[in-house]
Amino acid sequence: MHGYKYTAFFSYSHRDNVWARRIHRALERFRIDESLAERATFVGPDPGSLRPVFRDREEFSAGKSLDRQTREALEASAYLILLCSPAAAGSDYVNQEVLLFKKLGRGERIIPVILDGTPDGGNAECFPPAMRYKVTKTGRLSKKKEDIIAADVRSSGDGWTLTVAKVVARIIGVGTDEVFARAERERRQSMRVRATVGVLIAGLAIGGAIFAYTSHSQRQTLAEIEILVSRYSVVSPAEGATTTSTEQLTDAITAIVTGAARDKRYARALRSLKDGNVEQAEALLRQLAEETARRADTESRRAAEAYRRLGAIAGLGDPKRAREAYAKALQFDPSDSDALYWHGWLSLLAGNLSVAERDLNRLLDISKRKNDSRGVFRAQLRLGELVRDRGNLDAALKHQMAANEIAIARAEAKPDEAERERDLSVSYEKLGDVFYATGDIGKALVYFRKGQEISKRLASGDKKNTHWQRDLAVLLERIGDVLVTQGKFDDALGSYRQSATIRSTLAERAPGNESWQRDHSVALERLGDALHFKGDHDEALEKYQQSLAISEDLAARDPENAGRQYDLSVSATKVGDMLRRFDRLDAALTFYKDSLTINERLVDKEPGNAKWSRALSVALIKVADVLAQKKEISESVKSYDEALRIRKELVQSDPSNAVWQRDLAVVYSKFAAAHQLTGDRDRAIEALEMGRNIISELVEHTPGNAAWKRDLEWFEQRISELRK
Length: 724
Known about the structure:
Layout: E1 6-11, H1 17-29, E2 53-54, H2 66-75, E3 77-84, H3 86-89, H4 92-103, E4 110-114, H5 129-132, E5 133-135, E6 141-145, E7 151-152, H6 159-172, H7 176-190, H8 197-206, H9 218-232, H10 246-259, H11 264-274, H12 278-293, H13 296-314, H14 319-332, H15 337-349, H16 353-369, H17 373-389, H18 393-413, H19 418-438, H20 441-461, H21 466-485, H22 489-509, H23 514-534, H24 537-557, H25 562-581, H26 585-605, H27 610-629, H28 633-653, H29 658-677, H30 681-701, H31 706-723
Parallel strand pairs: 1-2, 1-3, 3-4, 4-7
Antiparallel strand pairs: 5-6
Helix pairs in contact: 6-7, 6-8, 9-10, 10-11, 10-13, 11-12, 12-13, 13-14, 14-15, 15-16, 15-17, 16-17, 17-18, 18-19, 19-20, 19-21, 20-21, 21-22, 22-23, 23-24, 24-25, 25-26, 25-27, 26-27, 27-28, 27-29, 28-29, 29-30, 30-31
């Protein structure tokens, strides 16, 4: 039996002891039909019988720990036969046995047999929790439900003879789906089983239904999945800027490892992943997905599943191809929650807000109907980001508060489950982002610190977990942003350097991972900002140029990705800022105009995107600043006028957005400078007073914002100087 002491382990409630004895006796007495002679099965060629089958804990030796001996018996068993009833569903011991078996990587070798009750989650539920839900990489139960195909011993179900046939067929390697489909056809035709167990199994074998388990042993299945998931593991979306979560990746790799025994393309895809050739693995999975899609009339859900797994692998390197794969999955199954989330979130990252809004709202509706709290959490989290990009901070806060409430409740319900803690950390980060945008940096820092506390604990507990390392990097960056606003530049620089170190390590580990490369670019940009504020302009320019090089490469890979184009415009602007400081005005103007061209194109494509509109106003001001320095005043004023128009519209759309209020004040300061150059002192003072009034209200609303206090002092000083 390939090293196993027992063919199977019986897991059951002792209230079902009568059924356990009866089924156990039937299996140990069962003789394998001669038609299977010399065929390779999971329990060996021509096994003859299924003995021994472990049934009762009375078989344990005296004096040993029950828990330890349970684990030893489970480890020594090729299969687990789960007798399902309300008593079993409520038994903690049964639940732990199933969970232990799944942790061994043998979840596909659990054979459930329904004795009583219903599998509907009601008071008469027959499946224990560990059977109903999938197990995460960390060995915890997830919220992702298992697709369970069970035998039903009751006369209203399969009956006794067919139930034994199904169990035997699974153990010797006959595909359960094949058995179930055949049994259902026969039951509908005659309402009773007409064939004996031997005839049934022989018929299935002759029909070519033997499932080739032999090429993947226990050790290969568990070890290969864990090693590959660990190797390719990236950040999950609740969760951070990436395109594949551990949950999706584990699902995809598990399918590849288990599928390698029956399809050469899966086997080649597995070898490709082991060799680090993600593109080759992706190409093979694409062939399989397209082949399944051609049978979509009868296998639409399988086609959706195939494309969803393709998206998980494609997302290891290329967000665009991942987005396309999830879009195909939704064509075959529009209600696929995972595909809705991933396609919606990747569309949000790419700047396709209307598509993202459609998918995320659909996910929210489906998750509410299914009472899927994590689905609701993820939808609320990303919708909060979406409406924030559109400039609606009140709506963003409502979404993020709703997500945070769910995250807190889930974490409190299972405080030892790391993924729930991680969701809570991300929720705190997103709440902090909203408060930062409103100008309430005190609250923003509180939430960023809460998130950092969780992320730091998770990251220190598992230094190899890239999810948690990146989470920590993000929060260090956010805290650095607040420290800059508070004028604590040395502290901010330290926080940014820690973040950059983590992100640089991740980027070096996976040069083909676009999300990590983008993270590295952002980290370099933030370092440049802090160095610029400290007056280290040469080093700041170096960091900005390094960031720009990465942004250019990423934008070239996916020219239609609005998010990548926006990143490129920001990087170009930063380089232009430093060149202007070095009085290289023509070179600076070139970079500013490049940024302006990009942002004009983004706004034309999606006029309602406030993020793009604000970026366009920034580019207009930068161009106008250089033109003013070059004494091209009339052209400069035209550019300022256009920026003023955009920023007034943004403020009118959301007066609560403190960042946009300050943006408007900045434009007035620019007009003042332009009027001063023309000698119109009165208009310069008028513009400064408009800006001063805006900043004064911001300071009154949030006295702790040191940056705004500095702004107010600057306006007061400039007005005083002009009035002398």
